[in-house]
Design brief:
Layout: H1 2-26, H2 28-36, E1 40-41, E2 59-69, E3 77-87, E4 91-97, E5 102-108, E6 111-112, E7 114-118, E8 121-125, E9 135-144, E10 149-151, E11 158-164, E12 167-171, E13 190-191, E14 193-200, E15 204-207, E16 210-217, E17 221-227, E18 232-233, E19 239-242, E20 244-250, E21 256-262, H3 266-273, H4 276-287, E22 294-295, E23 297-300, E24 314-317, H5 325-340, E25 346-347, H6 353-370, H7 376-394, H8 412-425, H9 427-440, E26 445-446, H10 448-459, H11 464-472
Parallel strand pairs: 1-4, 2-14, 21-22, 23-24, 25-26
Antiparallel strand pairs: 2-3, 3-9, 4-8, 5-6, 5-9, 7-8, 10-11, 11-12, 13-18, 14-17, 15-19, 16-17, 20-21
Amino acid sequence: MRTYRTSRRRARLALAAALTVTAALTGPAAVSRASAETPTPGAAGLGDPMFPLDGNGGYTVRHYKLDFDWRAPKTPFPAATTIRATATQALSRFDLDFAGNELHAVTVNGSPAQTRRDGDELIITPKSPIPRGSSFTVKVGYTADPTQIRHRDDAIEDYGWIPTPDGTVLYPQPNGAKMIFPSNDHPSARAPFTVRVTTPGDLTAVSNGRLVDRAERPGGRVRWTYDSEQPVATQLVQLAIGKYRLIDSTGPDGVALRDVVPDDLVAPTKQYRDLTPDHLAWLRAQLGSYPFKRYGVLVGDTDLGVALETQTLSLLPKADLLGTRVDAERNLVHELTHQWIGDSVGIATWSDLWLSEGHARFYERLYSEAHGGDSFEAAMRTAYENHDQWRHDYGAPAEPTEPNLFKRMRYDGSALVLYALREKVGTETFQRIERAWVAKYRGRTTSTADYIATASKAAGQDLSGFLRPWLYGATTPPMPGHPDWVVRPVVTG
């Protein structure tokens, strides 16, 4: 009996201890555990191989609201950005990416915060630490400077605020959003946007997504409010201000179409802009349903040398739409392809850029060949001949170097990887791979490893041994089905 009573007592004590632990894990103590965590600074960057300080650690942005009080071209104007975020650690301070604008005031949850600037980092210390898991709101008041432009020595050239005769368009790629608004400026960090812009009454403002409101303001001004409808990467935010005509229509599957065109370019660009429904239908057959509710072409009255796939509203310089039909369609299809791949299916790091640009070039050339353009095979053979040189000069497709991020390897050189994959597995299996990948990662970011895994599963065979040498190797592998294709020797010095 004594043993039995001792065992029962021990059991009761064990049960009480277990209940105490459970209460600690699930009761008020668990609630306070996050607040008891020692606050530490959020990381100044996400450690991207190309841009280590882009993006920020310690929180996730849930929503951006941009308020711009536009005045005139090349004229600074009042601006404010409100960010709703969730802390992923207990934060003593955190960073925003922010460059080149005059800072006025910063509040966190309505209270003034201490700030310090270090290069492109705005370092914010809130009045009270922010517990892990809690929501917080940051408001930054500043003077926006629409003359802020930076330059790259690759296909991007100038980026940031791009002036037009009566306003501006935006070219934030790769990391120019920080010149426009404080942000978590990395392609993996996507969030919905509300953009509210006040302009003189004779100007129009447009942004990504849907026009929610157009309201008359004192002094003959107009306030335009847009809702992005889906999360947007900072590099894909668009804001155009100027004397524009908004041209609405409907595309396949009821997609709302809205072109934004300077008044004097409406007629000259119409014949090519009117091809968008055909392009949508063709790409739907390749990649599945269009991933957004609306789409349009923004015609830039600018000397900008390159287009940009800003989400649901692709920016195309006027020269792209004033030449031959073949050239115009190549550019139109390229940027439209990005709405599937690059915008809806985003990239996890800048090293994954080959997925975005390689696919856009692949489908651009595939479409062009069938509509009066050059031979796709001939273009790929030329790319194959130069591939070792490009690997030497610009890095392998999935191993770019920062100065060469937007060089030829990420375009034709990366399209060649997809061409090689199609040659290996056949057209039918390749289409199955593409549609499976786009469907799986719709509205999400994806990596090179994700693509290889999805391709292997869809093809029913392990393709890592085939794709990895193409994507990472120092030399170009043989092209399946083309034993006569030869890579030219690398020229150094």
